[in-house]
Amino acid sequence: MRNTPRIVTEMSQAYTFSRRAWMLGAAQGAVGLMLAGRMAWLSVAQNERYTMLSESNRVNMTLLPPRRGWIVDRHGVPIANNRTDFRVDIIPDRLRDKERVLPLLGRILQLPPEEVERIAIDLEHAAGFQPVQVAENLDWERFAAVSVRLPELPGVAPTRGFARNYPAGAAVAHLTGYVGVPNAEQYKKTRDPLLVTPGFKLGKDGLEKMLEAELRGVAGAKRVEVTARGKLVAELATKPDIPGKTARLTIDVGLQEYAARRLGTNSGSVVVIDTRTGEMLAMVSMPAYDPNSFSDGISHLEWQMLSDDDHVPLMNKVTQGLYPPGSTVKPMNGLALMNAGVDPSARVNCSGAMRLGTSVFHCHKKGGHGPLDLKNAIMQSCDIYFYEMARRVGYNAIAPVARVLGLGQKFDLPFSTQRYGTMPDPAWKLKKYKHDWTVADSLNASIGQGYVLANPLQLAVMAARLASGRALQPSILANHVHRDSPALAIDSEHLARVRDAMFGVINQGGTGGAAKLLIPGVAIAGKTGTAQVRRITMAERRSGVLKNGQLPFKMRDHALFIGFAPADNPRYALAVVLEHNGHTVRNLDTPMIARDIMTYMLDRERALKSLAEVEPTWGGDIRTRMAATAETYRKAQSAPPAAIATKTDAIVPSDAPAVVNATDMANATQEALTTPGSTVAEDDTRDRQQ
Amino acid sequence: MNRIVPEPLAKLPWLVIILVVAIGCFGQVVLYSAAGGSLRPWALSQGIRFFVLLAGAMGLSYIPERTWKAAALPAYALIVLSLIAVEILGKVSGGSQRWLDLGFIRLQPSEFMKPAIVLAAAKFYDMLPPGETRRFGGIWPAALLIAVPAAIVMKQPDLGTALMICSGGATVMFLAGVPLRLFVGGAIAAAIAIPLSINFLLHDYQRNRILIFLDPESDPLGTGYHISQSKIAIGSGGIWGKGFLQGTQSHLDYLPEGHTDFVFATMAEEWGLVGGCLLILAFLLVIRWGIEVGQRANSRFARLTAAGLATTIFFYVAINLMMVMGLAPVVGIPLPLVSFGSSAQMTVLLCLGILMSIDRQNRKTVGW
Hints:
The structure holds 2 protein chains of 2 kinds. By secondary structure, chain A is of the alpha+beta class. Chain A is built from 26 helices and 19 strands. In chain A, helix 14 packs antiparallel against helix 21, helix 15 packs across helix 21 and helix 23 packs antiparallel against helix 24. Chains A and B meet through helix 1 and helix 2 of A and helix 7, helix 10, helix 12 and helix 13 of B.
């Protein structure tokens, strides 16, 4: 009896076991199937995705920065090209053990201690992914020495690439701009990995920036098989880069460089325009920075030096500099007067001063010119003639002609910053200052002062339009030349008279005799100008007006010149503007500079020879003078190490505070010289020189 | 019977042995590839150890069932003591430790607990009067048997082994006939307890592993890296694999632990879905044989032990594969017979030895 239930229980237990063991086996089979299914899902359904991931693990793609397109001049001579460059960078994100790597790198590359310190400072300020430059332009031996020791140098990236090269250096700085490492915002905007590839640089200013899309090209890629630890296993096929397109300019780089040198120690600008097509042959703003060193990454010290310089090397004076055009507007005035019905042979007697209400307006010639007709007024640059005539016709008769000739106009050129000045008229003044236009305003404007402001490019266009009689549009890209410009809405006989007067300015005893060409049979026609930047009080006038040489630089007059040559059949027009030149040194004044630049176009040998004679007296060529200036500055500053650190956030020169300040100051000066309303007091008189 | 081979040898389950040798040799082939096409440092030593241990397992098959039965509880007690000793030594040396260094060999007691818990639980249910099975008295001692080592191992901390000890013990309880509702209830309790324990009981790194398992891409370079890279290896292998010695994930070191816990991914990359399915099938056949040994066995102890040990092997394989394919968190369970390392190899071959021993006994009595 006791056994029976027990046997049953054991039986049922065995039954339970076999049933549950079967369930267990079935569950295990199901799990096995599930695992096989999961594996099939991964390796069949998702195969493509994982194959791609495995490939991107295995293959390390190194972008090869594309070779940047060249910028060449009208004859195909390179203005900006590329040179082979062995460089070493550090990628801060991948750098390990900085304390060991940096000194080691310094020893291998034989870097001076301050350079190592500079790198350390740069690394602290680096954005992580942004490569920090260790050295560039390395010779092969030092480059190879780093390459073979790479395993000990995590984060160090030697690159064999191309560096931007501007053979003409500072002479083309404001034309081409420069290239540089992309900044953090640019990378964040596009997330383009090319932007953080060591050695890649993009246009930061000038044409390099505006033509970026064409010049950049398409990156190549070096594909290598690497282990998880980054060890290279094999090199795979390399995809070559597609170099950027070449940009051809209308510039003649020989002329550009000559003009830059010829400006000497001036703070000035030159624009030369082909009077047949409007092509710009030269666009020079000096002094300038060296785009080569800017492209390498500029140091704080260098930047400070350029910012502090009162010659504003960071400013492209051609498009950003605004100046009162002074007497260079007088040929234009002549056209406007004739257009308004003034008889060119009608005379005005210049006694040296003219009273208008309570104030006295002076001519630059103290004793007066006596009676003058239009041609002589232009030749002698008589102020009284134009005061009187402007008073008669009113400025509304003059401003439209000025605009037709290009003053106050904006031109379609690939420059991001173009300031186009002011060509005032009564309506403009009412709108801006809520005051009525006065006769005094007309008088001031008639001699290119007061509210009138123009940039050197506009002055050159004015010269080119005067010379050609056509509404030339300036161009700088060879594929964007505006040919077949229409004739100006100006009587051609009036134009001929004005051109004759401009011929007289230089060749018939006018104010610009110094610009007379030394080439037989060819003549320049032109007009000189002086723009005053300070008031001359009655007290000063009584005790004798101070000579410019006695004044501080910032108080000296601007010197200007417009002209064209040959006078009888114009080919080239130019404008030369020298800030605070003050007419102090003869061979550094506008007429002789204009003459030599024109000479270069007509007789290159002669121009180079005469430059070779005078250049040493200015302290050597551009490069020598820049080096000397830098050396002096460095000594004066006794630079702390931080100053030589690379300025990673360097502001583009066009937008630099120094440039903005310089421009604002020029504007403020002019505004201060113009007293709004009719309250011109006795001691607010003007002194004119030419 | 007309035999060429002597009867004791003929009594060995040759089909299973061939399967196990096939798995082991395939494992060595994979290790050979994982070392970049070299016998060293893994394939050769693994191979030698495999055949030595296999011979040992075949030797174990001659030990009679009653010896296992007698040794079950003492062995269990000894291992629990070793676990405690390891824990104390670890405390003394300042840090967690899983090894017991005997000078000539470093033993990992927790590894032996995997088969030992099966034997101990089977022994317990064998002693228990059948009528008690479904009562409380048939449950709590078994639960205690499981809980003690599991808790110590968990403290080491070794989540994977603790999980396997619990699973092995629970399997025996299930097979012994403990009411199903307990397991259903247990599953529900686990569903509640797991999120809680993730938050309160686990170490940070364990919790991270689980959280990252749930979303490996959240940390592709940290802890999620293992799972991501393993899935890439398996997924990029495709149906036929990249070919022997052609795996890039393993050869270029993208796959971490490619010769130990993640050896299956190394294999799958080169042998593809086909290789993976064959390996899974081979394991399932071995495990099914183990369950059948249990089905054929006469004694309750033998039945529970055989099915329990077979399931222990199953848990090894299943947890490892789920982990490798991104279905379970990374808990550090190797793939038996394939992964490089002596502990798991020894445990699994010990299980096989006991299974063969049970198989032999029951053939003898059942035979004719």
